[in-house]
Every structure is written in C-alpha cells, then in structure tokens.
C-alpha cells in the first residue's frame, strides 16, 4: 500500500523544477543534500546562497513521525495550537513503552494494560487531528517509516533522534523536539541552521565479516560524538551501490551518534528494489524517472573537495568489523585490536547478554545474516554461553522471519523473542541478573551505550557491534573471541571455526504479514479527555513570558562535570511512563548528572538550607520561593536523544539558563523553543571559575540581539565578584520565542 499517494505524486512532479531553480540561482552544481534542502524552502521564491553553519533557513517538510514517548508532549502542545487537523501527513508509533521482560506476547499484553490511558489518549488525539496510528507491537518507528513512508528526495521531521534512519531511502529525515514537530503540523515555517556538509566517499565493497554497521562504527571513531554537529553526512562514491537499502538505513540511523543533523545516500537500484518489495512500485517508478536529481551532480562527485566542507574516504573492501564502547558510541576498535584492548583496560571479559534488534539493526537482512550463524551453532552443537535477546523491527519483519524459519533458528539456540519494539535499547529492559550493580559486559546491535542506558547499572560495560558479531560473542561468551581467527569447542570436544555470515536483503518469497498494526484516523467530532487526577497525562499550561528584566542573583543549581546527555538530564527506562506528565517527570531532572564539586549524582547544595538534596527537590524549593536558578555544564551538553523533556523540565522548575561549553544541536534548539537561555562560555576556561555557593546574573537581555554577547557575573560566597562574556546563537525569531516565553506562545500570537 502507498500512503499519501497524492502528496507523493505532486512531490515528484515538482521536485526537478525546484532543483533546476536552485541550481540556476546558485550558479553551480549541487550536492544531493542541497537539492533536497533547496527544494523544501518554505517559500520557493526565497532562494539565495545560504551560508552553511551560519544562516537560519525556513523549510517545509513533507511529513512528521512521532514515537509514543515523545508524541505525548508533542500532541499536548499541538492541542494548544488551535488547529483542526495536521497540515502534513503525520503518524504516531507505539514502540517505546513496551518493557522487554518475558517475551513478545506477554510483554505486549502487559504494556497494553499498563499503558492503556496513554495509548487511548494518543489514539483519540490521532483520530481527532487526522494522524495515522500504529498500535503497540506494530514495530519500531524508524523501521515502520522505512517500510511505509520514507521516499527518495523527501524531507521529514521526527520526534526521535534516530529519525535519520530514513536516509537509507535518500530522504532528509531529521530528529527534533516536539515543539518543532508542532510547527510543521500547524503549517508554520520550520527553522533550521543551514547545515554544513560532510561528504563520505565509499569505495570497494564489503566482504567476509564486515557489515554496513561497521561503516558507521568506523566513522564514529573518526568524527567523535561531536564531529557531525550541525552537518549533514552525505555518502557518495561507487561503494554506495553495493549496500542494501536497509544497510544504508543502519548507517544513517547511527549518524545521530556523531551529532549529525542527518545522513543520506543517493538513490540507486537497491532503493528502487526495496520500494517495490515493500509495495511501493509507483514511488520506485517516479524516483527512477528523476534519478539524476536524486544524487549529487557529476561535478560534485568528480571534485568533492570543492563542494563539501570535509571529505572522508572509506574503502569498504578493507573495512574490518568494529566494536565500539564502552560508555560512548565513538570509542571505535577494529576486531583485530579489540581483545588486547579488553585486557589492557581490565574490562569484564565474560560477555553476559547479547541483544540484537533496535531501530538500527532489525531488518530482514540483519536477522537473516545472524540466523545463519545461529544455524551453524545448532548444527555443530556449539554451546551458547550467554542469553540472547531478539527484538524484530516490525510485525512485517517478525511475521516473515517466522514464516521463513529465522525466528526458529534463534529459538533453537535459546533466544528470547521480544516485542517488535525498542526495549533494551532505550532502557525498557527488566534484566534478569544476580546483581544489578556489579561490573559486567554486554554486546548489542544498538546505537547508544551510555552508562546505565540499557539496564540502569552504571557498571554495565555495553559494546556496540553488528548483529552477526553480537551473536558470535554471545555464543562464545568471551569479549576476546575473534571469529576471523579463533575456534569454538563443540559439545563433543571438536574445534570449529564459524563460517562467514550469509543472508539475503529480501525474503525469497516476499514480505508477508497478517496485521501490520495500522489504524487510519477516523475523524469526526472526537473529544480528547485528560483525567485531572491522572499521574500519566497532564494538560499543558503555557510558560510565562519574559518579564523584560535581566536575570539577577540566580543560585547555581548544578555544575555538571563530564558527559551530560539527555539520559543524564531526563532518564528513560521507568521514567517513560511520565512522558505525558510534565510535573511528575520533572522529578528526574538532572538526576544522572555528575556534580563537579562532589563527584556524586542527584546531590546538590541547597543554598537556602545548606543541605545536599536531589536536584529536582532543590529546584522545586527555589521555584516555590520565586527564585530562578541556573545550570552550568561542559561540552556537548544534551547529547543523545531528541527528548524535549530535558528542556521542558528545567523550564518547568524555573531554571532560566543553561551555561555550557557547547551544546548538542537538537537540545540547544529544544531549549530555545521552550523559552530558555542556552548560553556558551566565550572562554571555556571560565567554567573553572564557577564555585559551588555562587549566585549568577546574566546581564544585557534588554539589548538581546543576534551576535551580541551577554555578560555573566559570579557572586562568590566570600563577597568577591567576577564577570565574563557568554555567547549565544539566537536569531531574531528565536529571541521572540524567549521574550514570549516559548515558540508555541509566539506561534499562537501570530495565529490570532
């Protein structure tokens, strides 16, 4: 089935004209990313040479996708926008609230019952506003989008940081906060800083144990978690055509781990084949007809250094399997060096659980390659040393994989098949272990491996690898095992070397499914009811506007040390149940951040009492006394998920500003959207000046303007003062957001 076919027909009939107009206006060849960006300007006539990394641009995306955890807050905001229907096609996907515990059937039944209030709310809001609804168990948002909605040349936003997964079908797909999604759904301009362009040239082709996952694992090591910030990663070169569409999606998906705005591949035969295999023949036909416009121009490919801000070359033929981690997804190590690194660092060598799935690696191709190894282990009677957990990407994949025997291959070696949902990848995992605090190692085919993310244990050393390598290490139970060189012992004492994985991009007999899990909106006069006594859902009240004054004498709430991701700011796992209730979820604010003065988490000095208390408790007390506070942090503050709760919680608890050495892109935007100040040290060494008992003032807000620094004043407990410049990246519109109290407040004012 082709969803939104009229929109797609119109898109492909107009896309070449828009690309030609941009090329003529700029007077030069275009990269693929530029073609898509310029074809999606909010006003077609507003074409000029936007400066990458500097100019803000207004875009008109084609569609919106929301997962159930972030959709709650997004739709609560949309309900306040005064619109009768979403202005663009939009969908909600119930994939985050299902806890992996006993297995798919039991876990979905448990989730359906325990989350019924939230699911009913999301379904009713979707019905009312013309939004498609995917039921619990239908699949992980990004896999479902790839199978049903992604299309070459399109632009979409999604309330999840791994929305770039759709780049596997040549789409610019960008993870955003809910307020950004509301802009798009209300038909407003969607603003983005014109991204820089990183060109990654792929040559050769993968062989042996190497997989598409290893491309992005290697690239993460090159770029680090900050290297792609405010940039689009565009792949090109002869190696791209050798990768399947789902393999490309894996690579684009994990581009979020280097901070990239998004990633994408040029249209090719593999994409067309995937579109046809998933029932979208007409889309494949339309894209093929304009294929020259769905790749970089010839001159760009011939002289990439002249058109990209940075060019990286990866030879797929020489690529080794990689394992990244622990604790950060950019700690990349080729497998030939990994055993030595395990021993050198004293990481727990015994591999205790293997987890295959997530939005990154849960395609039919992924499962089929891993299943080939499972079959060999069963046939050769090789004992499996560790538990194995499988999360298929969608019901269509699960049903087809079961029909074709792949699920049975995993079950023969003791695997537990969990729901078609995110599960352990986002902390929704009830891990069965003898001790949930001791040091241990797990290997996953996921994308992130921050401390405590999967199971809540800060001592779990999580490593990221391809599905096939994850399965190999699960069988061996030993992080130091290398399938390229080592052997395993069978039950009868033989030494066996595992064969290289084999799989197919598509099921030989095509995809099949009894019930995809999709519910189309019914429309009509539907009343959305939120129980005022609910602890899961809470109607939103607009944030108050700026009072026109500088921020004076704000007590330091927290000076965070080291990595402070959105997981540290607003944890997932058990807290997901409060994603629709701002007051309740605010109790987790910054509870994972490390206090620079004590080295402890969720323990900060209350300047009113002199006691150390939970971060949210101190903020609440300050708020009750009418006192604003401030948070100070280090590099890449807000790295990770798109969850806007990490911005809304401080806003709700009267934190007025975040002062950091640098910000992750999505989080900085989320802070701006909620009317907060996102400030950076003009001199990063000024971070060291901030003391535990300080009060801070931010001066110059009456003259708040783009490019004009503000001033921070530190009032130390000993009576001394220090001041220094702080920078910001606010443009005129974003300053209006700040003054109005939030972007949503501004939009409501404009619509009156």
TrEMBL record:
Pfam families: Aconitase, Aconitase_C. Residues 554-683 form the Aconitase A/isopropylmalate dehydratase small subunit swivel domain. InterPro entries: Acnase/IPM_dHydase_lsu_aba_1/3, Acoase/IPM_deHydtase_lsu_aba, Aconitase/3IPM_dehydase_swvl, Aconitase/IPM_isomerase, Aconitase_4Fe-4S_BS, Aconitase_4Fe-4S_dom, Aconitase_dom2, Aconitase_mito-like. Pathway: Carbohydrate metabolism; tricarboxylic acid cycle; isocitrate from oxaloacetate: step 2/2. Residues 34-477 form the Aconitase/3-isopropylmalate dehydratase large subunit alpha/beta/alpha domain. Signal peptide: none annotated. It is an enzyme of class 4 (lyase). GO terms for biological process: tricarboxylic acid cycle. Gene3D superfamilies: Aconitase, Domain 2, Aconitase, domain 3, Aconitase, domain 4. One of its GO terms (molecular function) is 4 iron, 4 sulfur cluster binding. It catalyses: citrate = D-threo-isocitrate. SUPFAM superfamilies: Aconitase iron-sulfur domain, LeuD/IlvD-like. Keywords: Iron, Iron-sulfur, Lyase, Metal-binding, Transit peptide, Tricarboxylic acid cycle. NCBIfam families: aconitase_mito (TIGR01340), PRK07229.1 (NF005558). This is Aconitate hydratase A. It comes from Parabacteroides acidifaciens.
């Amino acid at each position: 089935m082709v969803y939104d076919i009229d929109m797609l027909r119109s898109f492909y009939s107009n896309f070449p004209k828009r690309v030609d107009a941009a090329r003529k206006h700029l007077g030069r060849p275009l990269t693929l990313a530029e073609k898509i960006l310029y074809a999606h300007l909010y006003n077609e006539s507003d074409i000029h040479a936007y400066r990458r990394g500097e100019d803000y641009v207004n875009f008109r995306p084609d569609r919106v996708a929301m997962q159930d955890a972030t959709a709650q807050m997004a739709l609560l905001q949309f309900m306040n926008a005064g619109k009768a229907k979403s202005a663009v096609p939009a969908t909600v996907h119930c994939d985050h609230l299902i806890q992996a515990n006993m297995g798919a059937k039991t876990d979905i039944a448990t989730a359906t019952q325990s989350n019924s209030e939230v699911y009913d709310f999301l379904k009713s809001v979707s019905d009312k506003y013309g939004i498609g609804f995917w039921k619990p168990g239908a699949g992980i948002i990004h896999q479902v989008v790839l199978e049903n909605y992604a299309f070459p040349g399109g632009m979409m936003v999604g309330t999840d940081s791994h929305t770039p997964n759709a780049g596997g079908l040549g789409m610019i797909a960008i993870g955003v906060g809910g307020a950004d999604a509301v802009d798009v759904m209300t038909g407003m301009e969607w603003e983005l800083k014109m991204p820089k362009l990183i060109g990654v040239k792929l040559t050769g082709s993968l062989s042996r144990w190497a997989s598409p996952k290893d491309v992005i694992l290697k690239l993460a090591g090159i770029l680090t978690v900050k290297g792609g910030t405010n940039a689009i990663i565009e792949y090109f070169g002869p190696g791209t055509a050798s990768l399947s569409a789902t393999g490309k999606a894996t690579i684009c998906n994990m581009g979020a781990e280097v901070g990239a705005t998004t990633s994408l591949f040029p249209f090719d035969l593999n994409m067309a084949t995937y579109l046809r295999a998933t029932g979208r023949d007409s889309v494949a036909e339309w894209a093929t007809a304009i294929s020259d416009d769905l790749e970089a121009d010839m001159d760009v490919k011939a002289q990439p250094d002249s058109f990209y801000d940075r060019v990286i070359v990866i030879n797929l033929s020489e690529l080794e399997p990689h394992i990244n981690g622990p604790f950060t997804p950019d700690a990349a190590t080729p497998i030939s060096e990994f055993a030595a690194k395990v021993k050198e660092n004293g990481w727990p060598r015994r591999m205790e659980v293997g987890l295959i799935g997530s939005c990154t690696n849960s395609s039919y191709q992924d499962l089929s390659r891993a299943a080939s190894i499972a079959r060999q282990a069963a046939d050769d009677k090789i004992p499996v040393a560790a538990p194995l957990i499988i999360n298929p990407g969608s019901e269509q994949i699960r049903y087809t994989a079961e029909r074709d025997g792949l699920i049975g291959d995993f079950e023969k070696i003791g695997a537990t098949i969990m729901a078609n949902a995110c599960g352990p990848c986002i902390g929704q995992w009830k891990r069965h272990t003898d001790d949930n605090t001791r040091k241990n190692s797990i290997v996953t085919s996921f994308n992130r491996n921050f401390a405590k993310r999967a199971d809540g244990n800060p001592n779990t050393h999580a490593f990221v690898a391809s599905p096939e390598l994850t399965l190999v290490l699960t069988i061996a139970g030993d992080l130091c095992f290398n399938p390229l060189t080592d052997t395993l012992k069978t039950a009868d004492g033989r030494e066996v070397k595992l064969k290289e994985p084999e799989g197919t991009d598509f099921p030989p007999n095509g995809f099949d499914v009894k019930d995809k899990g999709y519910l189309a909106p019914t429309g009509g006069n539907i009343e959305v009811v939120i129980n005022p006594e609910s602890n899961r859902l809470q109607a939103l009240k607009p944030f108050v506007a700026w009072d026109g004054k500088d921020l004076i004498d704000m007590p330091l709430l927290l000076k965070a040390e080291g990595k402070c991701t959105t997981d540290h700011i607003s944890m997932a796992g058990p807290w997901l149940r409060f994603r629709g209730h701002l007051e309740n979820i605010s109790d987790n604010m910054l509870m994972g951040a490390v206090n620079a003065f004590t080295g402890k988490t969720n323990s900060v000095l209350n300047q009113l009492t002199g006691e150390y208390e939970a971060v949210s408790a101190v903020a609440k007390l300050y708020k009750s006394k009418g006192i604003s506070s401030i948070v100070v942090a280090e590099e890449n503050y807000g790295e990770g998920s798109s969850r806007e709760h990490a911005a809304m919680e401080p806003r709700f608890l009267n934190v007025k500003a975040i002062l950091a050495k640098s910000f992750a892109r999505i989080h900085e935007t989320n802070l701006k959207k909620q009317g907060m100040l996102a400030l950076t040290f003009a001199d990063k060494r000024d971070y060291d000046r901030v003391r535990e008992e300080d009060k801070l003032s931010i001066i110059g807000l009456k003259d708040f303007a783009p490019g004009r620094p503000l001033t921070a004043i530190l009032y130390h407990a000993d009576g001394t003062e220090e001041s220094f410049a702080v920078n910001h990246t606010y443009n005129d519109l974003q300053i209006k957001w700040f003054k109005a109290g939030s972007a949503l407040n501004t939009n409501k004012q404009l619509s009156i």
